[in-house]
Amino acid sequence: MKTGRTLQDLAAELDRQQSERKDFVAEQGAMRAVVPDWCRGVALDGLNGAVMPIRPYAHTQFATHLGIPRRYYDRMASEQPALLAENLNTWLQADQDKKRMVRTIDGEVRALLSPRYRPLDNFELATAVLPTLMEANVEVLSAELTETRLYIKGILPSLSDELPEGLSWGAGHHAVGQMQERTGRIVAAIVISNSEVGNGTLRVEPSVFTTWCTNLAVMAQAAMRKYHVGRAFSSDANFEVLRDETRKATDAAFWMQVQDVTRAAFQEDIWQAAVASIGEAGKAPITSTALPKVVEVAAAQFKLTDGQANSVLTYLAAGGDLTRWGLCSAVTRTANDQKDYEQASSLERLGGEILDLPSSQWQAIAEAV
After folding, report:
1. Do 265 and 204 form a contact (C-beta atoms < 8 A)?
2. Rounded to an integer, what distance in angstroms lies between the CA atom of residue 216 and that of residue 141?
3. Three-state DSSP class for 39?
4. What is the pLDDT of residue 227?
């Protein structure tokens, strides 16, 4: 598990971003894509006279919103930025009266969104959930702010169990964190994530961490509940007519709801369902004798890169546990090797998805020849 930032670093960066970000709502006709000499690539002009470089995720949103095929968009961005600027201006002017929200930070465009988009701020989320986690004696092991999402990951050492009978940890593993005194155990965990730029919803995910493993790994169990929370009125035009006092009351009630969901993530029945799911995964064997083909089929199904697939194959073979649990462990172990925190988090979530695959999909992997 990638450790990311310390809580102190996270708090400092959230506070900095809180003061540096600016949002604009403007008609498309007022925006103009330019290619200034000082900027590598396309920038956006027309927001209070500022010329701002466009970040990668915002480019994705421009392509989607304006209907420009992504492969063509990316080729223009890398080879012909002036042509990309011409395309952007043509399609922005084609619907010039339409309004968009442009979210910026540090003088750069980070998101292009609906003017009614009601962001869930990372600063407010952290303010709501971190005290709740501390009160529950949750040990926060990892936190990070990526280009598009905030992540907070923690474990509850008091809610743990032995690895179900018949399952193995593999070779060369060691305990980490406070769980060093509880060797060979699985522990209840939580992953909280959010995006201020429209890259998915706020998620509070009860999870399972293995602590007798090289670096901590998370498996978001599909057997456990996943809460997808959205702020009331987030896409409702009626929000525009609410008084400031009403908005503040609505926000306060929403963050109380998030706190309740966070507390509920560690319910005993949820935890027992996760333990049972892991036990069942250990009883689902990989029957194929061609492990490279097994990983090839899994890689195609889950869109793994060649490097990730090779890593999964290495850890699956070395671990010696040729079951659904073994494949899950190989994937989450591969997550630890990723340089990119988003990719690591995606593989951690994929581990949980593997544990809950429909029988037909699992058989296609387990019986690959």
Report:
1. yes
2. 9
3. coil
4. 55
